[in-house]
Every structure is written in C-alpha cells, then in structure tokens.
From TrEMBL:
It catalyses: DNA(n) + a 2'-deoxyribonucleoside 5'-triphosphate = DNA(n+1) + diphosphate. Belongs to the DnaX/STICHEL family. Keywords: ATP-binding, Coiled coil, DNA replication, DNA-directed DNA polymerase, Metal-binding, Nucleotide-binding, Nucleotidyltransferase, Transferase, Zinc. GO terms for molecular function: ATP binding; DNA binding; DNA-directed DNA polymerase activity; metal ion binding. Its EC number is 2.7.7.7. PANTHER family: PROTEIN STICHEL-LIKE 2 (PTHR11669:SF0), REPLICATION FACTOR C / DNA POLYMERASE III GAMMA-TAU SUBUNIT (PTHR11669). The gene is dnaX. This is DNA-directed DNA polymerase. It comes from Candidatus Mediterraneibacter quadrami. SUPFAM superfamilies: P-loop containing nucleoside triphosphate hydrolases, post-AAA+ oligomerization domain-like. GO terms for cellular component: DNA polymerase III complex.
C-alpha cells in the first residue's frame, strides 16, 4: 500500500479527536443531543484548523444510527459509508473549481429529492468565498428555506468575502488558530504511535512555524522525518530542513548591530547564506526575536508571556537591558517592511543587507523614530573619542570652561562630579523668583555654554516661571522636549545656571500642548533681555 501523509492518516474521525476548537465542538454536540440541528452553517478560520474535518464529522453524526454523546459511533453502516466516501448523503463541492451559477442550479435541483438512506443530505461547500456573485445569489433562496432533510455547511478562509445576505442565513462559527502547546502535544502522541524518535524542542519549533495550523505542522513534520529517515529528529535537524536560524545566531547578530559593526553583521549574513538558510524565513524569525525582546523589556511577568526556555529567557532579559525602546521600535519597523519586500524580491540578499546596514547606521534614515538613534550614535562617537584622549569641553563666550572656577558658585578647577563640587552644591541656597528672573536674563549666555546637541535644541526654547520657583523650559514638539529633558541634560543646565547666578534653580521641561499657540503663550528669550515672565498656578 502507498504511503499516506500524516495529516491524512491521522485526520480526526470523531469530535473528541479534534484539538483546539472546544467552543465549536461542544456547541455542535449539544445541538445533536437536543435535536436542535440548524439548516445552514458557516465555518470560518485560517487554513488547517479543522473546518472541513469538523464538517465531515458533523455529517456523520447527524446521520449516525447510534450516536454516542453527540458524536458518531463509527460502527454503523452510515458512518462507515460516509468515512469511505461512498455515501450519497454527503456531497462535497470545491467552490474554487465549481463556482458558477450552473453548479448551484444543479444543487437546487438535487435537494428536491429525499435521501435514499439516513436522515439528512449534507452539502459541504469548501472555499465558499470563491463562488461568483451570481452563484451566491442563486444559493440564497435554497439556503434560506431548504427542505427539512438538507443541511448546508460552507467553509471559508476569507469570511470577509462572503456576502452579508449569505452570512445572515447561517450559524457562524469562527475556528481559532491552534496553540503551540496543543499542536506539540498532538504531534507527540502521533510520534509515539509512529514510533519515531523526535526531540521535544524540534516539535515546539515546528508548531511555532505552523502558525496555528495543525495540517501545516504535520506536513512539516512529515518532511523532516523523511529527510532524516531512521534517525533521531533533533532541533538542529529541523532548522536545517526548513532553512531556519537558531536564536543564538540572532543574539550574535543583534549584538553586532548594537556595536554598529557593519562588517561583522555582513559576515554573519554571508555564513547563513552559505549554509543555505532561507532569507524570508530569517527575516520573519528575526522580527519575532525583536518582538520577544520588546516583551521582555516591557512586561514584569515575562515568564507568563513568552514561551521560551529558561536559558533563552535569561539571554532575552540581558539583551533587553542593552537596547533602548525607541531602537527596538525602529528595528521592528524596518524588518516588518523588509518581510513584505522579500515576498516579491529577486535580490533578497541585497535587501536584507541594506536593512541590517540601516540598523547599524541610523544616519541613513530621516524618519522621526530614527532621530533619537542618530543622536545616540553621535554621542557614542563623542564618548569614544573622549576615551581615546580627545577632550570635548563646553566653552563659554569668554572662552573659559563651562564649569570653570571664575564664576560665582563655580567649582574652581575641580572636575564636574568631584567631592569638592558636590559639597559646594549642598551649601548653595535654593532660588527665589528674583533669582529665577536672573537666570532668565542670563539664559542666552548659559545656552551658549551648553553642549552641542543641547544648544541646538535650546535655540527653539521659550521660558516660563513654574510653581515653587521652578524655571520652565517649553519646546515646540515632543522630540525636542525628550532630548532636553534627559536627566544628564537637565543636570548639565542646572549646573551651568548655578555656576552663573550662584543659586540652585529647579528646571521643568515641557512641550507645547496641541491647539495652543507657541509664540503667544511663552516668553521669547531671543527678543528681549528684560522680559516678562508668565507665572503658572
């Protein structure tokens, strides 16, 4: 006898064998037990979730001579003939190839005849969304008022393409994607029956790739078993068959990207291509890896959210501390766009390499979410240059250091952050409104002593007196406020103000609320030295 594929060999023959659709199975069994059987059903859901299988079991159950708890007995003549495909009571129609008006007219003529055996004629119309508009219209009347011995079951993967007039005449059942755990457990049971040695980690990866489809999972498993026939099927074997990449490779790839090591990133890509890895799958898996990182960074109970091993969990938590949130958003956006492009591309390697180079060099992009990453890249270069012996010390208008000791309250020649400076900070009294006014009057000079990035954003600033003698710096947009409001930048400004006026002034950074005029609401520091200050309650 010829070999039978796993998904055909182990197709469920009774309701109890159907996995992951308990909400539908329970409803149908209750209907059969209570003899409340409908005349038309619409089964919707993604591929491989059991729509046609459940339709066939339901057809057997309503015709079974001795149903057991709402399920077919599988032993009576009707159950055996339907299972063998010889029953005249169950008619399967593929709407993809029989989608014309004439096909529906044939059905309308056939339903006038009673079944020769059993209680019901069941019409299973697969891919019902493929019916033409004329065929849908021809089906309407029969679907609304069929003879009492006829049941229609329409199965579709695209419920949005079914006319509302058809939907309103059917009981609508939505088949869910099957969970990874359910698919894995089912494959374990089948491998026990088949006496195949398979690593559990391999089964879990197959279940993840199947994306909620039991049929896809069994087809992939069949393929992997055939490739390593007679051997133990391991996780690495599955990766090799599918052209997929292990998470350790993604970890190395991400660390190279964070180091902005373009050459190292391209070396990893070259190795993967030489191993025959499939680039579309690589892009999808790396996007999923970034998604896991995002969850690890934002969720407190990460173990309840992510389905990964303890070792991978530790790795994700470590790497989530190495990357900023805005960087993750940007990386996910770039790879989501890449996944769509790779579906129709002929030069997949080029597109993948360009996407990874974008991650390493944010200056290539002008999108708003890349600006913070570009600023971060500049700051990293400055820090690296300082570490190599180059000093970038902010200069005042008179050429002296921004933290020099000639101004009141300065720290002498001591470097910022020394114990001497900290002691001086402790004895400096807090500012009163007159002192805040003095800070405003000197703000132009103070801005000139700030670091380059901060100085650029402060050119757009307006000043206002906040509550409790705070100096409020108001900027025209959220991005500017985020940059100026960073803790290190606020400390830098407070230090410059202390050095200039000899008082501690607390700063508050905001941006203009939507609908308010920026020019009319706050004081323009560029227009006048002797300015009025708006006092907020």
């Amino acid at each position: 006898m010829s070999y039978t594929a796993l998904y055909r060999k182990f197709r469920p023959t009774e309701f109890e064998e159907v996995k992951g659709q308990d909400h539908i199975i329970t409803t149908l069994q209750n209907q059969i037990r209570a003899n409340r059987i409908g005349h038309a059903y619409l089964f919707c859901g993604t591929r491989g979730t059991g729509k046609t299988t459940v339709a066939k079991i339901f057809a057997k159950a309503v015709n079974c001579e001795h149903p057991v708890n709402g399920s077919p007995c599988g032993e009576c003549a009707m159950c055996r003939s339907i299972a063998a495909g010889t029953s005249m009571n169950v008619i399967e129609i593929d709407a993809a190839s029989n989608n014309g008006v004439d096909n529906i007219r044939e059905i309308r003529e056939e339903v006038t005849y009673r079944p020769t055996e059993g209680k019901y004629k069941v019409y299973i119309i697969d891919e019902a969304h493929m019916l033409s508009p004329g065929a849908h219209n021809a089906l309407l009347k029969t679907l609304e008022e069929p003879p009492e011995y006829v049941i229609f079951i329409l199965a579709t993967t695209e419920a949005n393409r079914i006319p509302v007039t058809i939907k309103s005449r059917c009981q609508h059942y939505e088949f869910k994607r099957i969970s990874i755990e359910t698919i894995t457990d089912r494959m374990k049971d089948l491998m026990t029956v088949e006496q195949v040695d398979v690593e559990e980690k391999a089964l879990r990866y197959i279940a993840k790739v199947a994306d909620g489809s039991m049929r896809d999972a069994l087809s992939i498993l069949d393929q992997c078993i055939a490739f390593y026939l007679g051997q133990r099927l391991t996780y690495d074997n599955v990766l090799e068959v599918l052209g997929a990449v292990d998470t350790d490779v993604f970890s190395r790839l991400l660390r190279k990207v964070l180091d902005r090591d373009v050459a190292g990133v391209l070396d990893i890509v070259d190795d993967l291509i030489m191993q025959g890895r499939e680039l579309t799958q690589l892009s999808a898996d790396f996007t999923w890896y970034l998604r896991n990182l995002l969850l690890a960074k934002t969720s407190d109970n990460i173990e309840d959210v992510l389905d990964v091993s303890t070792e991978n969990m530790r790795q994700l938590q470590e790497e989530s501390q190495m990357i900023e949130m805005d960087m993750l958003y940007r990386y996910i956006r770039i790879f989501a766009e890449l996944s769509n492009q790779l579906k129709f591309a002929t030069q997949k390697r080029v597109l993948l390499e360009v996407a990874l180079i974008k991650l390493c060099t944010p200056a290539m992009e002008t999108d708003q979410d890349s600006i913070l990453d570009r600023i971060r890249a500049v700051e990293e270069k400055l820090d690296k240059a300082e570490a190599e012996g180059f000093a970038f010390r902010p200069q005042g208008e008179d050429g002296s250091s921004a933290h020099g000791g000639d101004r009141p309250g300065g720290a002498g020649n001591g470097a910022p952050g020394t114990d001497e400076e900290e002691m001086i900070r402790k004895v400096i009294p807090a500012a009163v409104p007159e002192d805040v006014q003095e800070a405003v009057n000197n703000f132009r000079t103070i801005v000139g002593e700030a670091s380059g990035i901060l100085r650029g954003y402060l050119k757009k600033a307006r000043l206002s007196l906040g509550g409790e003698n705070r100096l409020m710096i108001v900027l025209p947009d959220r991005l500017s406020a985020d940059v100026v409001g960073r803790e290190d930048h606020v400390k830098e400004l407070e230090g410059l103000i202390e050095a200039r006026i000899g008082r501690r002034v607390e700063l508050e950074v905001r941006y203009v609320e939507e609908g308010r005029r920026f020019e009319d609401t706050f004081v323009d520091i560029g227009q006048n030295i002797n300015m009025e200050i708006t006092v907020e309650d």
